[in-house]
Amino acid sequence: MRTELNLTRRLDRVFARLDREPERPAHLDVPRMSRHRVVLFTATLAFYLAIVWAVVITSWLVRLDWQVMFFRPYQQWSEIHWFVDYYVVLGQRGPTAVMVAAWLGWRSWRQHTLRPLLTLGASLLLLNITVGAAKYGMGRLGPHYATVIGSNEMGLGGDIFPSGHTANAVVTWGILAYLASTPTARRWLSAISAVTSLGVGMATVYLGTHWLSDVLLGWAAGLLILLALPWCEPVIARTETAIFDLRDRWRARRGRTAPAPAVPVPVVLKPRTAPAEQPAPAREPVASVRGPRTPVHLAPGPHTARSERTPVTPAGSRRPPHADRLPRGASQPTRPVSGG
Q1: Which of 27, 30, 215, 282 is buried most deeply by CB count within 10 Å?
Q2: Dihedral angle at the C-alpha atoms of 321, 323, 325, 327, nearest 10 degrees?
Q3: pLDDT (tens digit, 9 = 90+) per residue, 1-58?
């Protein structure tokens, strides 16, 4: 009973927050490029370069790649193949970008700020530029297209080094932790995004679409982008200001209408008074130009009594002709009285 009451209270608080009007927060926690972050960025960059160098010189890391490929995890644990096929979608750029953009778009509307969407756009742009350039620049082939056993397969026209799925999972889900509004939410989201990206990377190794070194480099590439985002914050802020200014100008131009004609101010006229020494002239009566009109309902001519009028129709009298009928006013003839 107590657990249900606590759950009800939490749901009430959640719905109360959703019912509030959208408002811009008084303080936005924008991460800064602190000394701790600079140290992490430098260490991750060194790890990134070390992985690339180890693959280029065909070191022990390349031999480990071949051993994992010959182990064929998708055959060793074939019962989880269906789950891994679905789980690896969490690293595909299209579906994940749509889901995260929908959430950040709702946050942008609630907070009256474009920073969440602009930060996501900046991170995806950096991801496409850096990871895409590294993929096509090194041209490494994947395990299914390898040509020589034990070689690093570099410079052969491939595009799998570093792993794009892994880097995209790190950036897309890590941006939620980067934009978290409280330290507690940031810690939880960081742990969830780390586990998710780790699982996506291992899923690509299980399916045989990437070498193990591809996944290691993908993790480093995604983490470098997240650590470098505070350097992009000034550009994001200027872009947001420019977009809002453009929106305000567009609204002002759209709301501008043609100027209304000037309404003359009414002038109060005072009655004109004649001078004291000259009496005001009397107004002459104006004769009526029109004569008295005859009422429409009266017919012209002398008035006749009703008994003298004979009802007529356009075709003549309404009464049918009769031989014994006499005109009105004539005397009736005397009828003979027959004797009995």
Answers
A1: 215
A2: 80
A3: 566 667 677 666 655 554 444 455 555 567 788 889 999 999 999 999 999 999 999 9
